[in-house]
Amino acid sequence: MSQLPVQHDQAQTPLAAALSVRRLVEFLLRTGSIDNRFTGFDRANEGARLHRRLQKEAARLYPDYRAEVPLKETLTCAGVTYTLEGRADGIYTRDGVTVIEEIKTTACPSDRITEDHAPEHWGQGEVYAAIYARQNGLDNLRVQLTYYQVEEELTLRFQRDYTAGQLQGILTDLLTRYAPWARRAADWRQASRAALEGLGFPFPEYRPGQRAMMTQVYRTCLEGGALLCQAPTGIGKTMSVLFPALKALGAGVAGPVFYLTARGTTRAAAEDALDRLRRSAPGLPLRSVTLTAKDKICLCESRECTPEACPYADGYYARCKDALWAALGDETGALGAEALQRYARAYTVCPFELGLDLSLWSDVIVGDYNYLFDPVVRLQRFFETRGDYLFLLDEAHNLPDRAREMHTAALAGSAFRDARRRLGKGRSRLKTALGKVCTHFTAWRRRCEEAAGDRSGRTVFAPDRDEEFDRLLTRLCDPLEGWLDEHREPDETHAALLQLYFDVRAWLRVADTFDDHFVLQLSAFGSEVRATQLCLDPSAFLQADFGRGRAAVLFSATLGPAAYYKDLCGLPDARAVALRSPFDPRRLALVCPRRISTRYRDRAASLEAVAGCLAAMVQARPGNYLAFFPSYAYLRQVYDVFTAANPGLETLCQTAEMDEAARAEFLARFAPDPAAPLLGFAVLGGVFGEGVDLAGDRLIGVAVVGPGLPQVGPRQEQLRDYFEATRGSGFDYAYRYPGMNKVLQAAGRVIRTPADKGVVLLIDDRFTQPDYRRLMPPHWAGLRTVDTPAQLSALLAEFWGGEEETP
Prior knowledge:
Blueprint (H helix, E strand, L loop, with lengths): L1 E2 L11 E6 H9 L13 H19 L4 E12 L2 E15 L2 E10 L12 H18 L3 E10 L4 E10 H34 L12 H14 L1 E6 L6 H14 L6 E5 L2 H17 L7 E3 L3 H4 L18 H13 L5 E2 L1 H11 L3 H9 L4 E5 L1 H4 L6 H4 L6 E4 L5 H8 L2 E4 H10 L6 H21 L8 E5 L4 H20 L5 H20 L6 E8 L2 E8 L3 H8 L4 E6 L5 H7 L6 E4 L9 E6 L9 H17 L4 E6 L2 H14 L4 E4 L6 H9 L9 E6 L17 E5 L8 H14 L2 H18 L10 E6 L6 H4 L10 E3 L2 H13 L6
Parallel strand pairs: 1-3, 2-4, 5-6, 8-18, 8-19, 9-12, 9-13, 10-11, 10-12, 13-18, 20-25, 20-26, 21-23, 21-24, 22-23, 24-25
Antiparallel strand pairs: 3-4, 4-5, 6-7, 14-17, 15-16, 16-17
Helix pairs in contact: 1-3, 3-4, 4-6, 5-6, 6-7, 9-10, 10-11, 15-16, 15-18, 16-17, 17-18, 21-22, 21-27, 24-25
């Protein structure tokens, strides 16, 4: 271990701190403001591609050129023992002098790129040079900054020469300045890990199955790997994964823990579980940060992340350390949206960026799937290299579809025509580039019209990307970004062209990953032409993402068949466990009216029969009920028949136009202790079909109409064909498994606690078929069938009229 010259007393045992070179220099040297004009798209992936290109060019000029050279050094300074680690972009010899090259790609206009453009870039090269000099006994080195301006395709280079002594002085100064932060982090970590090691379970007893689940999670977190855990509602899934993961931190796993969710309601559940742990152990040093979307946490009336428009972005890096130091002293340790906004107002900093900065100092990070899996918004500060991270994925049945969306990109021809129209009369580079893209869409229209299809629209698929179209988009980016930089007025035209810019960048990002897991979909409907690079199979992307951490635990009430999720989530070697429901099965009446078909061709004939079953369900006992349908159209048809036949029964109806307030009002109608029946009509797989917790008598019955198969269409058929060719299970992968997952989720809205009692109707004859029965959980073994609404009424009268079992 090397020892740097310092001026501080080091009689005490040095603290240990592992630190990336980039984190060190950016934290201490970065200056200026947040300006998303030049950082809004997928800069990291694009930068990596351009890095490789520049490195190949350099290797042709300098035979000894080495790219991505790993550097690691352990040294002590100001009472702290640092382990510094990073990768130099390039190292080579020129004129007998060793050169350390740092490469940066940027969309910042070239006239703004000066030698002193970014002190942190010099700092990164200087630290790498200092380490390399120490390890190789060199007296003199040269640091070269290479900037590549993306739109102008221009390379700018700056060089500075240093002695080894100068470099050591720079490094000593940086580490000395960072020492107070390192001590604070080390003190917190020592206290936190000791407390977590002794942390007790926050409830007086375990629920049935909970201890078994926690044992599996703890083992996975310690040993590494992946676990798929299907845990029924009521087992306490959130605490069952968070508690053992935190105990693993106490046992020596570095962490942090990432609790990743598909929606805000489950993020709230994680925050509640963390608060429960803090209340159970007053003074527990447990710091968590909840990452909230920019639009929801922004303190401005309209979000525009530029120094001219936002006071919280202007000069952010000059004030963020003070805000960070204050937030790290928060006594609660719970840094949710409200706390972040409070510190942001006090120090005039962006709350979103403050949350990202605080994540580096936290034990638990709560946020959306995007922060790990989306290549555009992934937390680059963590996931550039592999770490000792623990990934906990709530409602993991959503992950394959979410990942598919993240790696899919779509563009509409009308957006380009509209942008060209908005520019008005006259010629310009931008209008010319837009016109060429519009011409390509016209050619696509002819291609669609030549394909077989009905009058409403025609779709064609291609196995390869359209490279000519991608070149046109690449050429469009430069004049489009130039226009946006010159026209910053927040009007409709600026908003439209800005959105087009981001959509084009998203398309180009996906184009660079396009392989045999994708198809190009072209569709013409009316006057519109739409192009989509459709990701059929996201498993390779997810496998790489999970590989960035130590362990992953995927959990949900519906995570079967396990082989299907292991396959699509890119975790072929994951262990899988399925826990039994902790509730008395006698408190659930699971009934299938087996004479009804809700297949598309039979829906018109099924309306009265379905409405009759719903009436029998709600008339058996006063209470709140939900009925789920495979489409809005079918929902409305049954709703009209039901309300005409039962005018005295109160109903609610979900619509496609519902906003967040309307959805909240809908759920608020499901009040406790109802005196009369209430039946809500909702869409299967929608916002009310999962993540909704209506415990007790707020919901005593659910009807699921049909097995939830996705609507047959060109895209779904492409999925079927792909998985038939690659897995031999096209219908299962494209239709049956996703459909039954939605069914199980909707049915799970009933029976949330041991005291609950309720009804689940499965209305369709297919629910009795073996291929669907095998997808049902063990506690559904008591499924009963009826042939008529009268039989259903009699069965439910017996269920509700029987003596109440003790839960």
